[in-house]
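JOB MANIFEST
job_type = single_chain_structure
chain_count = 1
residues = 123
[input]
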Amino acid sequence: MKISPKASFLIALIVLGVSAFTLEGATAFLKLHFRKERVDLAQPLERISAKLGPWVQVSTDEPLQEDIEHTLGTSQYIFRDYLDSRVFSSQVLDTFKDKPAGERKAAFLDLQKQYPEAALTLR
């Protein structure tokens, strides 16, 4: 018996709707209140090296907007792009050094499309 894509979508939508309603009802009934707890870092993020084995950082550490940091409740985060030095020559990696952050990101995304196995993003 084959189920049409429309029927599958409707079934999934109904299951998600019932799940959301049930969770909301159970939370209210049990008088549960969820809160975000602070989790301390084991080590400062600055200790994460710009070179991790063959992986070389090609991005710069840029801060988020102040309102986003406030919403997150932290200023401790990283968004880093790494390329595999076994795949890319040092000349290619050196081209990132003098570029502004936006150009670095664009160049990284281009290389990531061509060599997805040789590009890594840490968030």
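[summary]
The mean pLDDT is 91.
The two ends are 43 Å apart (CA to CA).
exit_status = 0
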